[in-house]
Amino acid sequence: AGAHWMHGGEANQFWEWAKPRYPDLKYSVDTVENIHAVTAEGIKGPEFREENFQVFADAWEKFSTENPDKDISLAELQNKYIGTENSKAFADFMAQCWMGATGPDKISCTDYFSDPNGPGGVQVKGGNQQIIDRMAKEALEAGVTIKTGVRITDVMQTKSGYQLSDSEGGQYSAAHVAMSVPLAVLKKGLINFDPPLSPDTQKQMDGIGSVPMTKVFLPVKEEFFTKNNIKKDTHIDIAINGQPPAFAHLYSNGTAGITFLMGGDLALRFEKAEMKNQIGALKELMKKIPQLNGVTDYSDGPMFVSDWNTNPLALGAYTAALPGNKRQGVMTENNTRFGGGGSSTLSFIGEGACYSTDGAGGMSSAHMSGKRAAQNIHAKMNPGPKPGPNLDNFYVLD
Known about the structure:
22% strand, 398 residues, seven-stranded mixed β-sheet, 12 helices, alpha+beta
């Protein structure tokens, strides 16, 4: 529901794969042309983002020149090289509403500045789920077994690879395993690994934060947008120093509604609040946005609130590298417990598990880590010029 982007637009790696594969998909590109900001100094236009982006980029370049191969938090960069109230509000906004962290002190500048994909991007008409549905259909037709609602609790090395157990008592054997469960679930120890994960893998996981973010979608009648001349894909940054930042996206992809993104403590509090308190908080937030004056008179249904933080199978939104840490390649464990020489593998894939110069974190890294893991598994299953693997015993557990 609401705003959804493949950041990087037409250059997004996953979209470059999906677009020619499913050419009938309808989509638009949010080019981030309609930007406004609510600040302590009043209402601003695109200059709020543009000027602050440049100030922080210049500060990072100066720090990097003075400290080659060193890292610093976004908060330290702001304090040491910039120091204005305006830049502090911007750092809080970007940390919580873009990176999804609890604050700029939890953001690695190396991670932040190495992602070339800015705001906006491709939005598929009807939602990105259409791509997933088509991929699932192709997999089923190829003989892959897909099981949904499966919660894996144990992963144990065996002589032939791995044995996985789920919460309902089901068991699955596999020569290779690729896990894309949220990093927060792994870090909380909700899956038992026997033997425990290697120190290298654990160190990589410890250096990546899984961050709180909540998405709220409010259906609004089309008349409101036409009457108030609100353009498609209008961005509203709420960045007032000393107040929780938030982000609103209006008329996303031409869909009559408003999307709000909240990060940090505000996201946690909002998601856990009772409905009446959520409605009250949302009304107070909308009062700060001039473009939304009178919008409650045009409500077109109940609001949708994500459960990313309270859902025990998610425990957060996406990830951000902590200061002093850097995402590495795909995290892979080799099964050597029984002297197998690593012929069986356990790979961790997803946006938190991989570093990519085409996008640190986010969809491009998720796509790249999955592709790398699949290529590695395929090579081990098919050494030399042989036909593709038999998919009769290939499972997707979701």
